[in-house]
Amino acid sequence: MLWLYVFGDNPWPLATEWVLLTTGLAVFVSIAAGCMYVAYRNGRKREIEAREDGSREWRRVLLWTLVPLGLIAITALAFWQRSIHHAGTLAAMEQRVAVFADLLNTRQTISELTARTTDSGDLQAVIATSGGRSGTYRLLWQVNSMTYGEILSNEKQAVEIGSAREELALEILIDDVARSYRDTVLKGGGVLVDEPFQLFVTLMPDVDEQDIEAWPPHERYQWEQGVSPLLSIRSFEFPMRFSVGRDGTINHLGP
């Protein structure tokens, strides 16, 4: 119960080992002393009552003495083995924490996110990365309607990033965003749209199951829930102004 309500699912701190060992030994020493006292009193009584069978009575006294001592020895051995097992578990957990911390501190992150309008009217996002760990990363981006909170575009790709600062470019097609807005939000036409949109970009290391197994349990859970600190996220707001005809035709308007 102490494990669940105080330490949760984590291993017990090493400092608790002496408390558990001392408590267990104190309990069993007290029980052993009580058993020995009862055995001695019972032995003396039986010796007085049956002096002619004294050797048999002494064997009983010896048995009652050795049983608690044996229990003490077994209990001490069990606590010693548990202490060794706990030390190994704690060392393994510290190793998991060190592996995850190394990945967290050296991974590539998004240091800057900028965007500009191309000659064709589309949006080009430029992502600057920084970090010391080169390799394969996953790049995810999505465009949201800030007014209605709908996801209008959701894309991803694998990218190779070196150890030096790099820049990645994304092309956001305005026509695709406008059509998605028409089909997702409006579900019809005859509307003038003039509102802000938001681009979310996420960069994360491309890891496999073997890599994830080497992390602490709570970090694995956060990764599965999509809230891991390994995710580097930046956002950018941009306006769009277009009209949707009753026939669904999209016309982009100037500022």
Helix content: 40-55%
How many E-type strands? 8
- Give me the Rg, rounded: 35 Å
What is the end-to-end distance? 66 Å
* Largest sheet data: 5 strands, antiparallel
Give the number of domains: 2
| Percent in strands | 25-35%
**Highest-level CATH class of the largest domain:** Mainly Beta
Count of alpha and pi helical runs: 6
Task: Return the average pLDDT rounded to an integer.
Answer: 83
Secondary structure category: alpha+beta
Helix-strand sequence: HHHEEEEEHEHHEE
Question: What does this protein look like?
Answer:
With 255 residues, this protein is of the alpha+beta class. The protein folds into two domains: 2-105; 109-252, Immunoglobulin-like, CATH 2.60.40. It contains six helices and eight strands; from the N terminus they run H-H-H-E-E-E-E-E-H-E-H-H-E-E. The strands form two sheets. A five-stranded antiparallel β-sheet has the order 4-3-6-7-8. The protein has a three-stranded antiparallel β-sheet with strand order 1-2-5. Strand 3 and strand 4 form a beta hairpin. The chain is elongated, with a radius of gyration of 35 Å. The mean pLDDT is 83.
